[in-house]
Amino acid sequence: MGPFILISTREHDLATSDEVRGVLAATGLTADALRVIRLDRHSLGAIDSLDLEHCPGIILGGSPFNASDHPSRKSETQKRCEADLSRLLDVLVAEDFPFLGACYGVGTLGIHQGGTIDTHFGEPVGTSRIRLTVQGRKDPLLEGLPDEFDAFVGHKEAVSALPETAVLLANSAACPVQMFRVKSNLYATQFHPELDPMGLAQRIMIYRDAGYFPPHEAQRLHDKALDSEVEWPALVLRNFVKRYGPIE
């Protein structure tokens, strides 16, 4: 069996490298067990080149892109990334292939499956209290997590109408869709399972001018992130790798 694949659409090198660090730390994977694809730099090309036959699963990281933005506001890079991800999801959904999209995954998988993604349920940067649904308590990716836990969020868009093909696994008071599943093996979370306090603090400074918060609030949010206690979301990624990784 080959490596897991992490697809990144972040154009900032430091944000990408920290996302890789966070995924490795959360999953327990070694660097050679994770193939990183910088979709912001290169097209996926033919899906066959991903060698899905030998890939245990695909993780899609977060993104500064908003899937629900009007096409006139999207860069050429974003349009290309979204076209590639749509082509990839055509294959993954048809094959029920293991997929976990974090934050941006909600927008890409949600739109691909006919859901409504808009700005009604955005959440400010910080922590959100996540609540598992009845179906979420039964799902193997949420095994071992408490019924409620804190997770890092920070997003301008979210699901306002769940795709008919999706099963709701988690929500929060401010955001009705925090995690869902399509078929048996495709998942998306609105919260960030790869983020730890250090990672969020760094991301706040990188995206201080991206419209998530007033720039003058960056230092306060940075310091607050470092003081946060968030431990459970990483288990989602760990369970993903445990469920789909090779049996040793």
Automatic annotation (TrEMBL):
Pfam families named among the record's database cross-references: GATase
Keyword Metal-binding included in the entry's annotation: no
Record carries keyword Acyltransferase: no
CDD domains for the chain: GATase1_1
Domain of life, per lineage: Bacteria
Segments forming domain Glutamine amidotransferase: 48-197
Bilayer-crossing regions: none
InterPro entries named in the record: ChyE-like (IPR044992), Class_I_gatase-like (IPR029062), GATASE (IPR017926)
Gene3D superfamilies the UniProt entry points to: 3.40.50.880
PROSITE patterns, A to Z: GATASE_TYPE_1
Keywords (A to Z) from UniProt: Glutamine amidotransferase
NCBIfam families reported in the protein's UniProt record: PRK07567.1
Protein name, UniProt field: Glutamine amidotransferase
Organism of origin: Paeniglutamicibacter antarcticus
Lineage: Bacteria, Bacillati, Actinomycetota, Actinomycetes, Micrococcales
